[in-house]
Each structure stands twice: as C-alpha cells, then as structure tokens.
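User: I'm writing a tutorial on reading structure tokens. Could you give me a worked example: one chain, its sequence, then its tokens, then a sentence or two explaining what the tokens reveal?
Assistant: Sure. Here is the example chain.
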Amino acid sequence: MATRRTAARAPSAPKPAVHKPPGRATNARKARAGAARASTARDGLKLAGVGTAAVTRATGRAWSEWLAVLDRAGARAMPHKEIALMLSRKFEVPDWWSQMVTVGYEQARGLRAAGQRADGFAASASRTMGAPVRRLFDAWGDAAVRDRWLHDAAIEVRRFIDGKSMRMTWKPGGSCVDVSFRSRGPGKSQVAVRHGRLRSAGAARTQKAFWSAALDRLKALLESGR
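And here are its predicted structure tokens:
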C-alpha cells in the first residue's frame, strides 16, 4: 500500500508591525506643547508673581500665548470673574490657575497694578523662628506678649485655629491680616503673614515694611528666651 507524503510547509514570515498614525487630538496636544516650550524659551515673562515656565507646565501655554489667546477672546473688556470663568470652562484651566492667569493678564494689559488682587492690594512677609510652634502661636495670641513686638498696633483677633492660623482686622481702614503657623521640626517654626484689602500699592509697600520689621522683633524676642 503506497504511503502518502505531505510536503512540509515553510515557516511563514512574521507580519510587519502596523503602527497607527496618531489621532488629531494627540497631534494637536503635541504641537501645542512644542509651541509652548518654544515660547517659554523666548518670552521669559513673569506675571502675577509666576514665571512663564511654571504657567506653561500647569496650563500648557506660556504667558505670551495666554496674552494673545485672551486678547482674541475680548478679555480686555471683561470683568475679572468672567475671564476666570472662561479660562476654566472653555480652556479647561484648573480653578487656581484660572485666577492666576486672569490676574497676570490684567497686569500685563494695565487693567490691574502689580500686587493688586480682586479685593485690593496685599502685602506678605514670613520668618522661620528658633522656637517651637506652640510658643510662636502664643506670642500672637497673648495680647501682653504681642504688644512687646507689635508695638500696640490696632488689631482685633476675629478667629483662630489653635496652633495653626489666625485672622485679624487691622482697625485703621478695616483691612484683613491672615497669619499661618507651621512647625519646622523640634524647636523650630515658621510664621507667614498676608495683609490684604489694602487700598493702594503704596499702602502695600508700607505694610510689607511694617510686617518685616515686626517679625524681626518677634524673632529676636523668641530666640532670646525672654
């Protein structure tokens, strides 16, 4: 009986890998990111206290791009809240960054002075102290101790979170002082002051100098052990 032989099949060649072209959305994102990086290298702007590298990382656009985008959108004629809302809804900018981009745009276009916020001008100062946070907080909360370094400034404590924060009213003019406290390790702490609702850039400069000097006096008092 004859035996039927089956011819051996040659191994098939591997199929070439198929690479799908990137979609339009991916291409658009890459193009925008590349343009943003190039723009970052060119403009070097710093608005609202934020450099163009930081705003590019957070929003995908450099300051020069945001200025052009908002100009085209007619932002010069819009109030602050409307610009911020447009950035959040139309351009999907995170809420905090939509506020910062709005402030930066208003400063760049002369709609807002440097240091000016939605509620007026603000001044800030901070110091690291060689004292535990409990002692630092008490130097603010105890009126007798506070007068030793704040020199009888006319303030009223409105509310506080023990050991963490304090809000006060600066009685001349009714401006607002927010203070935060943070431990920086054994025997070390930090205080940060923000004095807001000031009426002018000049008032902000005056209060910044005041708080810088006051915090220096507080630091000397706490670190002297008295």
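What the tokens reveal: The mean pLDDT is 83. The first helix runs from residue 24 to 43.
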